[in-house]
Each structure stands twice: as structure tokens, then as C-alpha cells.
Amino acid sequence: MMTPEEELAASRRLHWMSILELHAISRGDQDALVGEERRLTWRDVRNQVRAVSAELQRRGVNVGDRVFILSLNSVEYVIALLAINTVGAIGCPLNSRSVSAELDYFVDDSGAVFGFVDDLGAAVRERSGIASEVSVICFSEEFQAIAESGAQPEAVDVAETDDAFIIYTSGTTSAPKGVLLTHMNMISQALNTTRTAPSGAPTDCNMVVVPLFHIAGLAFLYPCFLNGVKVVIAPPKALASMESLADLLETERVTNLFLVPTLWQALCSSPGVRDRDFKLKGLSWGASPASRETLQLMADTFPDAHISAAFGQTEMSPTTCSLPGEDSVRKTGSVGRPIGLVAARIVDPLGEDVRPGEMGEIVYRGPGLMKEYWNKPEQTVQATHGGWFHSGDLVREDEEGFVFVVDRAKDIIISGGENISSVEVEHAVAAHPKVADASVIGIPHPKWVETPVVFVVPADPADPPVLEEIRDFLTDRIASFKKPTRLEVVAELPRNASGKLQKHKLREDFAANE
């Protein structure tokens, strides 16, 4: 139980735990979190976070410890994240679609000492090695009993600069890296979001649909706490059909919603959507490019709403650029302009600024920049050399300051909003006994925007592998959404004199043949 002096000290902090305490006092009876058959006020959330925090302390979780969450989105997920941070520990949200080998790597690399799982996460965990040795609380009757116990934690003074989350990247050129984010990083993101999106009125309601293990999910959730906005955590069944999603939007009178372009396309195309009594006023999209047709469909379906796009990366907490709806059609292909709390430059290989229209790497700095890559000091130094964070994105800027991504230097494939590392898929495919060499690129897809295609040099030209053989082989090696959906057998892969793979030639040849 906090003393009055400790409560006063905690109230001076600026992170989502201290803000929760303020909302519990000033608007305690108002709805804060809504989920499947659950509706919690700000006071309810505060009380449950305290109780779960006390349980974490009872089980030996200390300041700086890492605690993973392996679960689909839920109200319990949010309570657990807040409780982890309340005791000064670091939350490690893990992709619920991870296979056992990936999960073991995340838990081992982070050094997690405890975890939270739902039924799906429990099943995945049972198939893993290291992760199965870590004690967990399951989001079931056990969690509910703990959350409603009324227990009080020992007070911990968590500073704004303390560590909050480790979010794992897709692993572009090596194993996935853990991005260590502080509470200040997240507050910076919340302030940026508040400046670029219409949210914060007492009657507003935001719905979280994107997974909370994605930085996009956390980045959409955090500003809701800053502004005291009711949050609806869409249950998995709400995404079973666009009709069920529309029902929830209508019933809860949702005003602000972030979706990947694929889902916006599906929602706006669903039958009867324009006859609904929606209250949406803020539509945002990101995680993958949106076509001109999708943007126009959004504008036609919700003509009175403010539409904006967000671009960035986990290391920047994540948003770096924003594209408002009024510019989205005339600037199709742009990711917008740098936002208020982000300084950005476009530089050549020597670190010198390029002129408008010229291609260069976009580099950033600002309060949203990560603290470091977890346990990877050399890669941290490499990514921040010269005093700027080097994104790896090759871009050009037009005369109005709008940024256009020319190429993703790290060869990330973005399929349905999911980041897929082509290098990771290549390594997995190359382990097949029928494969001598492999390369993976993203190709356009009418629904998912991009999809992986693998180019394979067979070990025996007379007996090349087929797609289903490769996909079956990858079942326990990479998550299903990372599997290639097309296979091309080639005699050799294009490489330069030093042996470096030339993926741009693969893209050019594939496009020419198609």
C-alpha cells in the first residue's frame, strides 16, 4: 500500500501508470476498457492493475525483470502490461503466431523470468523448450481471481526514462533484435499521435484491432491512456467477418480506428456498410502501403472522417511520418512528412544531405528513438552512428517535403500488415535437402499487398522441389504467414562480382516475365 507521500511522488511521473491513477480519481466511474463480455471503468482498471502487480511481486518479479505475454488481444492483456510496468519490470509482447523455435529464441534472448498466456499461448508454450520452463499466469479463472483480489503492491517509483518494453523486430539480416523502449519513448509517441489524429474528447472511443504484440497496437493504445479515451479491445471473433466488426463499431459508437489497408478495403466493401450508424471521425492506416483505390474507397465510405496514414519503425516507437487524408490521393505512394517530435534527414552513404528528388537513406533522432537493441551493443552503435538512427529505408523527398520510399534496404516484405524478413525465409528454405540456393522477394498481391515468392536453385536439377514440399518443410521452422506462396525454379541466382545477391535483378526479371 502506498503512503500519501509515495502517491504524491508517483503522481508527478508521466507514463501510463501514473496517468491511470489520475483517471481513476477524476473519471473513475467512466468506461475505460471494453472487451469480450467485459467492461471496466478507470477505477476498475486501476484496482485490477494493482492486484496483478502485487501478485507479480509475490512471485518474485523485480525491477528490470522481463515478463513475456503470449496471447491474442484482450482486456487481460492490457491489465497485464500495465501491471508489469507498475512493478518496474519490462513487458515483452510476443507474436502469438510464433512457432516453438521462434518463441524459445525470444524468451532466451530476453531472459524472461515470468509470463502471461491465454489458451492459445499456453498451447504454443507446451510445444516449446526454454519457454515451458518459465512460470506463467493463464488468462483464465486464475487471472480473474488475482485481478479481483484487492491486493496492494509495494510502491515502486518508475521513472519516465526507465525501460518499458522489448519489441522484437522481424530480423532482416540476422536473428530478430529486441528493441528496448522506455516510457518516455511511448509518451513521445502518444504526443505525436494526439497532434496528428482527432482523439481526446470525453465522448471519444478508440478500438484496438491490430495485435498488441505489434508496436502499432501499443502505439495506438498508449495515447488512449494519455487522453482518457475509452478503448474497445476487439476480440478475435469480431474479425471473423466484416459484418461482426461493423456490429461492434456501431454498438460501441467507436470514433477512432486504425486498420491495415487490407482490412479497410474489406470493411468499406462489405454489404450495407454505408447504411450503418457509425460515429467514426478518425480513420488511420499503416503497416503496409495502400492503393489509390483503397484510399478513395475509404474517403467515399466515410466522407466526413479525417483520414491519415502512419509510417515508421519499431526503433522510433514507431511513427516518424504522417500523411493526411487530403494529400493521400494526390501524393499516392508517399508516406507523408516527418511529424512534430521527429527530426529527419535524407543522406548519402557519407552522411551528407541529398537534394530534393535524390535518393538517400532517411535517418532520425528525437525522444521516440529507442534506448538500444537488447543485448546487442555493436548493432546499437552501428544503427546510431553519426548521432542519427539509420533506418535502412531508401527514400526521396519532393519539393513539398513529402517522403517516398524507393526501396526497403533491409528487404522486408509487408504482407497484410505483417512484416516478413526475406532473409529469415531464405535461411529456412535453404535448409531443405533439395535446395542448393534460395532467395525471397515480395511480389504484388491483390488482397495482402505483397506476398513472398521464393527463387530456388535445386540441388539436383532433375528433381527440383515443388511449393508444397517447401511449405510442409517450413511448418515448424517459421510462422505460417511467412511461408512463400509461390516458387520459381532457376538455374542460378543473380550475384555481383563479390558474390552479393542482386535482388533488384530478381524483381526486374520477375516483372518482365509476368
From TrEMBL:
**Limits of the AMP-dependent synthetase/ligase domain:** 25-374
* Domain of life the protein comes from: Bacteria
Name of one Pfam family that matches: AMP-binding
Q: Which SUPFAM superfamilies match?
A: Acetyl-CoA synthetase-like
A molecular function (GO) held by this record is: acid-thiol ligase activity
Which UniProt keyword terms apply here?
Ligase
Q: What is this protein called?
A: Long-chain fatty acid--CoA ligase
Q: Which taxonomic lineage is given here?
A: Bacteria, Bacillati, Actinomycetota, Actinomycetes, Micrococcales
